[in-house]
Amino acid sequence: MENTELRNIFGYLHNTKGPSVISEQGRCFEWYKNGKIHRDNGPAVTRTNEYKEIHMFWFVDGKQKASIVFNDPRHDFDVTVKNGCSKSFVSTIDENGKSASRFFDTAIVVHLAHLFFPEMVIPKKHKKHLTQPVSDYIPTVDTFDSNIIRLLVGA
Q1: What is the distance between the alpha carbons of residues 56 and 141, in angstroms, rounded to a whole number?
Q2: In whole angstroms, what is the distance from residue 55 CA to residue 23 CA?
Q3: DSSP readout, 67-93?
Q4: Which residues of 86-123 are buried (b: 16+ CB within 10 A; e: fewer)?
Q5: If pLDDT is split at 50, 70 and 90, which confidence band does 74 have?
Q6: How far apart are CA 65 and CA 60, in angstroms?
Q7: Helix or strand holding residue 57 (H, E)
Q8: What is the distance between the alpha carbons of residues 82 and 36, in angstroms, rounded to a whole number?
Q9: What are 81-130's pLDDT values in tens digits?
Q10: What is the value of pTM for the model shown?
């Protein structure tokens, strides 16, 4: 299988209905608009790696706005239980380079993965998180950027 690239009539990477670039192994998805890395309703780059992490990068008109890294819920990952609530470690960087690492409810991590990788098969042990009620800031495609990034990077 080769990398898939979609271009507009001018030869620029561009796709209005999904990623413009899909890596050969299906581990990286990139959204472009008229040759610039860009996505209005979610991360412009989503990537999984050999360390069982998911990386998401938000770009608007080629400029990076934020990034987050968290454990891939398809694999076992360390969960710290605090006050009876399972937590997962999330690292973030905002557009000014401010970084933060902290624990978030595992439900947030599972919802993030499921929202932006809808074809991902979530293991039974983590599926319960998709049915649990989560606070207002949990992502919907419409409110994700404005709310969850602010929460994650502590803005």
Answers
A1: 14
A2: 14
A3: EEEEE-TTS----EEETTEEEEEEEEE
A4: bbbbbebbbbeeeeeeeebbbbbbbbbbbbbbeebebe
A5: confident
A6: 7
A7: strand 53-60
A8: 42
A9: 767 777 788 888 877 888 888 777 777 777 777 777 766 777 777 777 77
A10: 0.74
